[in-house]
Every structure is written in C-alpha cells, then in structure tokens.
C-alpha cells in the first residue's frame, strides 16, 4: 500500500480503514461485500453463513476496484 499511496507510516488499522472507506464510498461496493472483504463476522448472519460457501471472487472484485481507485 505504501507504493500506491506514497504514505510512509501506514498502520494495519489505517490500511483497513482506508480500504473500507474507498471500497464503500468511492467504488460503491455494498456494505455486505466490504464486510466480507474485511472478513468481518456478522452476528445476524452467523447461521446463514454456515450454509453459504465463501465466494472469494466477490472479495477479489472489491480488492481490484479499490486498488484501481488508488492507482
């Protein structure tokens, strides 16, 4: 991320915060897809998550859009 942003002091928290904001506000990704990309666990969907296999293509799409926006 340092190469993309040219920011010297990038903490893990700052990187995740920037990623989430960029994904949602600039790339217009859904909250659910941003949460999935951040590997967040939603208590309200815990049971549903047992039945649905993770689709890593969704995470890939979110990440590709954020990286494209930062470039």
Describe the structure.
The protein is mainly alpha-helical. It has helices at about 1-5, 10-25, 30-35, 45-50, 55-70. Helix 2 crosses helix 5 and helix 3 (about 30-35) packs across helix 5. The radius of gyration is 13 Å and the shape is elongated. The mean pLDDT is about 85.
Summarize the structure.
Helix 2 (12-26) crosses helix 5 (56-70) and helix 3 (31-37) packs across helix 5 (56-70).
Question: What is the total tally of β strands?
Answer: 0
The helix-and-strand class reads: mainly alpha
**How many strands, which pairing sense, and closed or not: the largest β-sheet?**
none
- As a percent range, the share of helical residues equals 55-70%
Mean pLDDT: 85
Q: Which term fits the overall shape?
A: elongated
SS element count, helices: 5
- Rg result: 13 Å
Low-confidence stretches: none
Q: What is the helix/strand order?
A: HHHHH
Proportion in β-strands: under 5%
CA-CA gap between termini: 10 Å
